[in-house]
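I am writing to request your help with a piece of structural work I have in hand. I set the record out below, with my sincere thanks for your time.
___
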Amino acid sequence: MKEEIKVPSVGESITTGVIVAWLKQNGDFVQDGDILFELETDKAVLEIPSTGSGTLAIVVEAASEVSIGQTVALLDAGDAAAQPAAAPQHEAAAAEDQKGNSQVLSPAVRRIIAEHNLEPDAITGTGKGGR
């Protein structure tokens, strides 16, 4: 089943926006809540998250002007059942990496470290006690 990704309402007076950039590629598997694209309005640039899980099919390209409520992509949820099976292996690998680490890292920090391919031991905290 394909789910439509539409431009959400972002304010009372805002009726259009411009897709600045797609942060996911056509054909990528996305999870519910993953940031899909950046929408620029006359007031701000907003990150628009996915409303479901599945394979992304982009309908409107970057730099295009879109209306609120317009369909900009489709999610094929048919692949959603097959993809999450791979996620536990990734989480297990991350857990093994953290065992040797003397720092306790929050899930958000672990995600940022993984996204930017950083080495946690090379990061020095600037807070109290080196946190």
About this structure: The helical segments are 87-99, 107-115. The longest strand covers residues 16-22.
